Amino acid sequence: MPSVTEKDEAFTEQCSHNHQMVCESCEQLKETIAALQKIFVTSSVDGKEDEMNDLNFRVQQATKSIFSLKKHIIRCKNQDLAKTHLFETIPTDEVLLVCDWAMKFLPRKFREDQCDWFGKRGIPWHISIAFCRKDDGSIGSLGFVHLFATQISQVRTFI
């Protein structure tokens, strides 16, 4: 499976195998986007430079979004494979902790209008789940939810 190119050397390693795998669908997508961009560049709308600039921006943003989605899908697939491997090989004397911030909890009024909901500051919550292998070979889990009364800043304020 092809992977996303990592620029940080701390997350790379040298390998001796061939990285020339090519996905036909991915190559067709690249060719299609290149052809669309070529058509866009060669076409012009007389006297409507603002519209052309707007369309050019949209094309560039759409291209970035498509490739970002592809990278996201590959990362998800790799993470799922890694998690599956961990669950298959975790011994009975070890625990796998999965910790992450959940979407903010937004208290609601009954039949709340959209204008009241959007932009609302929610209650942050952090979820931790501990996975372990039981003696019978099955995977057990225990979840922890931490609710915070105020907004949590993840900015480092000290060294």
Description:
- By secondary structure, this protein is α+β, with helices and mostly antiparallel strands.
- It is 40% helix and 16% strand.
- The protein is flat.
- It starts with 23 loop residues before the first helix and ends in a 12-residue tail after the last strand.
Keywords:
alpha+beta, 3 helices, single chain, 159 residues, 3-stranded antiparallel sheet
SSE blueprint and pairings:
Elements: H1 24-42, H2 49-89, E1 95-101, H3 114-117, E2 125-133, E3 139-147
Antiparallel strand pairs: 1-2, 2-3
Low-confidence stretches: none
The average pLDDT is: 80
Task: Please report the number of helical segments.
Answer: 3
Question: How much of the sequence is in beta strands?
Answer: 15-25%
Instruction: Classify the helix fraction into a percent range.
Output: 40-55%
Largest sheet: 3 strands, antiparallel
Q: How far apart are the termini?
A: 39 Å
Major beta sheet, strand line-up = 1-2-3
Oligomer: single chain
- Cα gyration radius (Å): 24 Å
- Shape estimate: flat
- What is the number of strand segments? 3
Order of helices and strands: HHEHEE
Structural class comes to alpha+beta
Could you give a quick summary of the protein structure above?
The chain has 159 residues and is of the alpha+beta class. Helices cover 40% and strands 16% of the residues.
